[in-house]
């Protein structure tokens, strides 16, 4: 069982993990019993501060996701300039990370680094498939929770892209105006 591990000895951690899972997507209507089934399929991982949990572009061992039980992580992505990363989000208890990899096994889309000591509950793709076979209704609600999280992130990224596009257009207008002034000055 997941929470028999010494690093996860707190007696209420199993139930708290289930409640965090429920809270991650309340519209999915996961019951406490459903969430306990999922939590019991997970493996514990204790991560120390500074550890890179997932690395952007990583192609091996991507078939899992993690529920953050305790601690905080930073998700960041490269912007094409060597050595420069952009912080995408801060990830805390109740958050799922690596969910896209658990679904499609594709390379990791961001680097997640532990900002504190972190307790995670890991659900592998294989365990997700086993849940689909053994508890299809519970697995369906979990998949709905995962999709809800992805949809939320997609909408937020669309909002950010629109804001960036608006800033880019404003900068271009300023540059065009500056070029027009320079052309007039050089022509005079």
TrEMBL record:
SMART domains: cNMP. InterPro entries: cNMP-bd_dom (IPR000595), cNMP-bd_dom_sf (IPR018490), RmlC-like_jellyroll (IPR014710). It comes from the Bacteria. Residues 38-132 form the Cyclic nucleotide-binding domain. Pfam families: cNMP_binding. CDD domains: CAP_ED. This is Cyclic nucleotide-binding domain-containing protein. The lineage of its organism: Bacteria, Pseudomonadati, Pseudomonadota, Betaproteobacteria, Burkholderiales.
